[in-house]
Write a structure and sequence with these properties.
single chain; mainly alpha; 2 domains; 7 helices; about 80% helix; flat
Length: about 210
């Protein structure tokens, strides 16, 4: 595959999964109060088919205009995956850090496509890092609120970490603050790194 095809394939996957996942879950959740339990999965599959049809109609256009679209579009896609990742891992925000990689991939490719200068690349990387870290900060706040509100958090942490002593409320707060600060710092660094690496990768690929 050429650079362009790899780029289009990854962007197509990132954008194309959104309607498929959304329609699948919508078919599942909407059907719960409306149909017998035995038919719920059929509705979910129907939603999946609708999502695939949406992709068949507009995904090619999305990919073709991905780099020229309004930034709110890719920001909405990032928020979609952030919420999905948060829910999939049951409120543990650590895995949301990984979303810095596709965000950097997309922004790096966009910068090369738009012929950005080195100064513009650094500025865009900082803006991207500010956005991704800000989103993760909100995710961390939500995770902290869930943890503090749950009566089982102390027992869960004790079992997960294999601690021989009970976990106190003060320890939970310390873990939240220390862990939150650490993953936010990692998110900022990883986003900057991802944007710069993607920019360099695509820039070299366009020159060959």
């Amino acid at each position: 595959m050429t650079m362009r095809k790899i780029e289009s394939a990854i962007i197509g996957f990132l954008f194309g999964a959104v309607p498929v996942i959304t329609c699948f879950l919508a078919g599942w959740w909407i059907s719960i109060p409306l149909v017998p339990e035995s038919q719920i999965f059929q509705w979910a599959l129907a939603g999946l088919v609708v999502g695939i049809l949406i992709d068949a109609i507009i995904l090619r256009r999305w990919v073709r205009h991905a780099y020229s679209m309004n930034p709110l579009g890719w920001m909405a896609v990032y928020l979609f995956y952030s919420v999905g990742m948060f829910g999939f891992f049951m409120g543990v925000p650590v895995f949301n850090v990984l979303l810095a990689l596709p965000a950097g991939f997309f922004i790096g490719g966009r910068l090369v496509n738009n012929g950005a200068s080195p100064v513009a690349v650094k500025k865009a990387a900082r803006h991207c890092a500010l956005f991704t870290t800000g989103v993760l900060a909100l995710i961390c706040v939500a995770s902290a609120l869930f943890a503090l509100a749950s009566l089982s958090t102390a027992y869960d942490l004790q079992g997960m970490l294999g601690l021989p002593f009970p976990v106190t409320h003060a320890m939970i707060i310390a873990i939240i603050l220390g862990g939150g600060a650490s993953i936010l710092a990692l998110q900022w660094w990883l986003t900057l790194w991802s944007v710069k690496r993607a920019y360099g990768y695509f820039f070299q690929g366009r020159q060959t």
